[in-house]
Design goal:
The protein is of the alpha/beta class. It contains eight helices and five strands, in the order E-E-E-H-H-H-E-H-H-E-H-H-H. The longest helix has 17 residues, at 165-181.
Length: 182
C-alpha cells in the first residue's frame, strides 16, 4: 500500500481566505519514503496573518522569486503523484491532515480542477491515531500534538526544517512508522 504524506505551510488558518504558501509531499510504501517534493506557490498578493509567518518563517519576497503559479503547482502535484499512483486514487496521510487537505482542495477548486479525480476521500491522520492510542492506554499522557509526538518519539529535524512543508512531512512519516511499531 502506498500513501501520500502531505503538509502545507499557509498564511493562516482559513483555506478560503488565507494563502497556500508551500506544499510538502512524500510517497510512503512499506515504511520507506520512495520520493519527496516541495512546491512553493507564487502570488502577486498573499493573504497572510503575521502569526502564521512567525511560525513558518516564510519570507514572501523569497517565495515570489522561487515559487510557481497555482496552475503549475497542480501540474507538478499531478505529475509527481502520477509516477507512483498511476490511475489509483491517492490516500493522503499526515498530522491533522484534514487541515492540509482543505488547502489542497481549495487550490484545486480555485483552478477549476477536480480534486476527487486524483485524491480519495480516505485519509490517515497521525493526530487522530495518537489520540485513539492515548484513549486505549498506550500512552500515559496525550501526545497528539505534533510537537509532543515528535518529542516523545525523539524525532529530530535538520536545522531550519521544522515548520517547513517538506520537513514536517518527512517527520510525520517517521512518526507514522513509529506508530506502526506499536
Amino acid at each position: 500500500m502506498k500513501l501520500l504524506f502531505l503538509d502545507v505551510e499557509t498564511g493562516g488558518m482559513d483555506e478560503v481566505v488565507n494563502s497556500l504558501l508551500t506544499i510538502g509531499m512524500a510517497v510512503w510504501e512499506d515504511g520507506n519514503i520512495l520520493d519527496s517534493k516541495e512546491i512553493y506557490i507564487k502570488k502577486e498578493e498573499y493573504n497572510v496573518v503575521q502569526q502564521a509567518l512567525d511560525i513558518n518563517k516564510i519570507n514572501l519576497d523569497e517565495l515570489r522569486n522561487k515559487g510557481i503559479d497555482e496552475q503549475e503547482a497542480i501540474n507538478q502535484i499531478e505529475d509527481f503523484c502520477g509516477k507512483y499512483f498511476a490511475d489509483e486514487k491517492i490516500i493522503s496521510a499526515g498530522h491533522n491532515v484534514a487541515f492540509d487537505m482543505g488547502f489542497i482542495k481549495s487550490l484545486y477548486r480555485r483552478n477549476s480542477k477536480d480534486y476527487y479525480k486524483t485524491f480519495s476521500y480516505r485519509f490517515i491522520d497521525t493526530g487522530t491515531l495518537l489520540r485513539f492510542m492515548y484513549m486505549q492506554g498506550k500512552f500515559e499522557k496525550d501526545i497528539s500534538s505534533s510537537d509532543k509526538a515528535f518529542e516523545y518519539f525523539n524525532i529530530t529535524f535538520e536545522q531550519d526544517k521544522r515548520h517547513t512543508a517538506l520537513g514536517d512531512t518527512e517527520a510525520t512519516v517517521k512518526l507514522f512508522n513509529k506508530l506502526l511499531e506499536i
